[in-house]
Every structure is written in structure tokens, then in C-alpha cells.
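Lab notebook, bench 4. We co-purified these components, and the gel suggests they stay together. Before we commit to crystallization screens, I want a quick structural picture of the whole thing.
Request: model the full complex, all chains together.
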Amino acid sequence: MSIWKYANPLKFMGWTGPVVVPVSVLAAICILTGTIWGFFFTPDDYRMGASVKIIYIHVPSAMMAINAWAMMLVASLIWLVRRHHVSALAARAAAPVGVVMTLIALITGAIWGQPMWGTWWAWDPRLTSFLILLLFYIGYLAMWQAIENPDTAADLTSVLCLVGSVFAILSRYAVNFWNQGLHQGASLSLDAEENVSDVFWQPLVLTIVGFVLLFVALVLIRTRTEIRARRLYAVSARERMNDA
Amino acid sequence: MIGLLKRDLHLAVRAGGGFGLGLAFFLIVTVLVPFGVGPDTVLLARIAPGILWIGALLACLLSLDRIFQLDFEDGSLDLLATAPVPLEGVVAIKALAHWLTTGLPLTLAAPVLGVLLNLPGPGFGWLLLSLAIGTPALSMIGAFGAALTVGLKRGGLLMSLLVLPLYVPSLIFGTEAARRGAEGLAGGTPLLFAAGITLGSLAVLPFAAAAALRVNLR
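Here is the predicted assembly.
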């Protein structure tokens, strides 16, 4: 008996079914209380005014955009090493969620940047690396779309994910290199956050937890859908064989 | 493996198409830029390193699908995969052949086009050096992308989508070295980074590309 027995599709469907609903509810509660608390019950920042409050969406989504890729990387590795189909499907399920998180982070960042920096977009290292991350996500998804055989697709996208991770990290530090000082590194980093008073910090932690739970819930739901789609495909293929 | 290299070189040079096409494309892209941004020589001189790098990168991309596609279609890739030579070696040799037929001519042609873009004097050496060091990475990364998409009907577009983000680090460090050179600064640091990426790609990507080829030939 090991943890791997839960990777069996049947077992996976069994234990995720009851788990999905509470996780979703908990995610909704965390995000709702976090944002309401943050939006209405924290004071405005003395320098940034009310625009500081976008932090409660921007920071969690940015974190999940990166964590989603990290989860895809782990799932791809598990698929390549242990060939658990659920793991490949989970990687596939996480990618669109990651794309949406990246987009949310970019868009909320632009909305915040317009009044604060006076521009929607700057070729700041942090912004640029997120744009590159988005490109990697798009390529990964396009690869899944393009290949019909599911096992081939899983293999190739896993290899792409591994190589892509290396190059994404390289790009992250490469763009650091030509930071010409137009803008400081974005001020929304975690180490800066710790200087922020607890008033902002507590609702932020709550929304971050909420986004993590939301990600887990969405990936579980999407993986379950993928498994069902795979079963449906197998059933219809068997039907066609019987008819022939 | 030497035989394979010779075969690929002969095919590239004699079978027409790929060899001259990349260079012509490079020329056209470079010539089109002044039409797009205007003939202001100061502006052109400033963006020349970036334009030449992007032109070389696109010209390189154009010929990538020839690395494996033809061999895949006529079945010689299956023979190469079952040959006693390791598939990783085959991939590396094919990337080398691609570099000799595209990367190297592009590197040599770039200074000539640099004259058209009014590249400042000290920039020529740095541009040549940065392209010579950076383009092998482009070929190797491209071979990986070509290996991923070799089995697909219309893999070309997908391959550009996959390969171009992977080119970002090489492009950044390559242009940075050339730009610093053109401005009369020392471009040694970005050049070393570009060399590091090239060497890293050469060390790791043959294995990834060979793995992808094995999946596609399954």
C-alpha cells in the first residue's frame, strides 16, 4: 500500500468525488471573505490610495500562475517515470487554469500600473517574464491540441514541459539582465509584502489560500472530466468495433 | 556519423531550396525594416543589432522543418533510429548540419547587412561573434522543436509557437552583446551567457530531442 494506489483512475474518481465539493466551497468562502475584508474593511494606502486593493487578486493569481506550471512539471515527471495516466491528465487539466491565472495577473497588473506607473505596460523583468510564461502555456496547450493519440501527446507535452521549464527559468533571469532601470522590479514581491502592516497582510493570506483551494478544485474537476472523456472514447471505440 | 553529416550537407546544398532560401529571407527582412521604420540612420544604427538578430532567428526558423521532415516521410529516419549509431548522436549531427547550412552563412552575411542598417564600426566584430556563438543554440533548440512536431501534418506553425519562446534567452544575450559592442562597450558578459546557453543546449537537448523522436516513431 502506498500513495500510488490513489493514482488508479477508479480510485482517483472514488476519492476525488467527495473531496471536490468541500474544497470548492472552502475556496469560495476564503476568496469571498478575503476580498470583501480587503476591499471594504482595510484602510487605503497613504501613497497608492484605493488602488492598493487589487493586490488581493493580483498576488494570489500571479502565485498560482507559477505554481500551476510547477505542478504541471511534477505531473509530467510522474507520467514520464511511472506512466500513471491520471498524472498526465492532471497536467493537461492544470494548463488552462494556469493560462487564466497568468492572464488575470497580467490584466490586474496593467489596471494597477496605469494610475500608479502611468502606463499599462512596461518591459519590466517581472512583467516580461510573465508574458513569456503565457507564451509557454499557449505552446503547451497547442501541443496537446495538435496530437490525436493521447499517449503520444502526453509523452511529447511532458518532454516539452521539462525543457520549457528550464528555458522559462533562463528567460526569467535573462530579462533581469537588461533591466535598464526604467522601473524598479515590481513592488508586489513577497519580501516587500512582509513590510506591509498586518491590516493588508491578513486578508491577502486568506485570498492566497482561497486561490490555492480554487486551483485544486478546478484541477480535480477538469481531471475528472478528462477521465470521463477518456472512458467515453473507449466505450465508443468498443461500440464501433462491435458494429464492424 | 561523419557519413551522415556529409549526406545531410549534400542534400541541403544540392536538393535546392533550403540552403539559399534562408539567406534570401534574411536579406529581405533586413531590407524591409527601413521601409517600416523610415530611413533615419541614427535610429537604424540603434536597432541594427536587434534587427539582424531577429532576422537571423526567423531565417533559422524557416528551415527547421527540413531537419527531420523529409527523412521522416521517406522512412530513412526509421533506419537511422534502428542504426547502431545512438539517436542522440544523429540528432546532434543533424543540428550541426543545419547550423552549417543556415547558422554559419547567416553569421557571415550579417556584417554585410549591418552596412545597410548603418551599424556602428565597433559593432561588426561583436555582431559576428555573438551570432557565431548564439546560432548553434538556435539550431539545436530548433532540432528539438522539429523532433516534437515531426509526426504532425501541419507541424510548421505549431513548431514556431513552441520554438520561439525557447529562443528568448539566446536572443536576449546575443542582442545585448551586439548592442553593447555597437555602443563601444565591452560585450563580454552577455556573450559568455549566450555561450553558456549554447553549450547547455548542446549538452541536454539531443537527449530530449531523441526522446521526442522515439515517441513519434513509435
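Chain B touches chain A at residues 144, 148-149, 151-152, 155, 158, 161-162, 164-166, 168-169, 172-173, 176, 190, 193, 197, 204-205, 208, 211-212, 215-216, 218 (CB under 8 Å). Worth comparing against the SEC data before the next meeting. Chain B is about 85% helix and 0% strand.
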